[in-house]
Amino acid sequence: MKLGIAVVLATGIAVAQTPDLAHQREVFNKLCGTCHTPESAVTTRRTRTEWQEEIARMVANGAKGTEEEFATTLDYLTSQFGRAAGGRAAGGLLGQMGPDDKHVVDPAAAERGRKIWAAECIQCHGTQARGTDNGPNLVRSDLVLHDRYADHIGPFLKKGHKMQSGGSSATLTADQIQDVSHFIHERLYDTLRGSPIFHPGDVNTGNAKDGAAYFSSKCESCHSATGDLAHVAAKYDPPTLQGRFLNPRPLGGGGRGGRGGRGGAGSKAPQVTLTVTTPTGETVTGSPVFFDDFNVAVRDAAGNYHSWKRVSGVKVVKNDPYTRHDELLTEYSDKNMHDILAYLETLK
Predict the structure, then answer these.
(1) Suppose 277 and one of 16, 69, 234, 315 were both cysteines; which one would form an S-S bond, judging by CB atoms 3.0 to 4.6 Å apart?
(2) How far apart are the first and last CA of the chain?
(3) Domain boundaries 250-321, CATH class
(4) List of residues 6+ apart from 62 with CB closer than 8 A
């Protein structure tokens, strides 16, 4: 490791001014994406010092980059996945889920984007970007969900997407693309419960008979209408009930790199556990405390803490009771989801 890099890691002093967020993310992906997916590299929040130590460890393991790239990556990780020494996350409470790099909508830019949208996009994608018979729903688009400040929307439009005027989107300027991206993200955020204009719609629109048939074929091996789901419709309103069966996993329930949260030890809900087998054959099963590519730690049923380095011979098996629910998310059709909800609503 070069001396300059060592100084950056030891002091936290960047050798160049902090770049914009999109550039920071690009540098981070370049340095860390060789060995990790971006998601697996940022599953926990750390202080700036802890991120310095983590980068130094990666350098010692062979990570390659320039002084400026390592400094940029440190700034990015600290600002987006950091926490203060006292325990608060850089962008919110320690342990909150997901990256803290949300696209912040500029209302003025979104209003400018609205005019471009009306002139070039509305006939295919609709007034609220939810699609028409002529074009897809952008609110549910993976490209839009991953986009931050047109870093995904921009390259797509520059490839030359046909607009309703007959022209090509490749002719849009960078400023126009930015404005359109702000408008699209504003439409996306207006669908969220935190939006001041959000109102839950009537989600109970399915066929209860078809839902009962689906439940019988896919769900009865684990659930019972007269057992664990008896009177479930009396406990939750339809939107909440839909969310509960689509994603029953407790928040912070011990995923990769997680430390547990609501639904942790002592909860009645089924929990994710890890079974660790050491090279000597010792086996320990417990709730995940820490789990990444290098270390694993669990707390067993008696409350005892165990930790290991993930060296050769240490085997880790993840026991996840929600795996089938995760799989079903890729199998459900819209009709399936509405039909299941309609059936569950009969269980008063």
Answers:
(1) 315
(2) 65
(3) mainly beta
(4) none
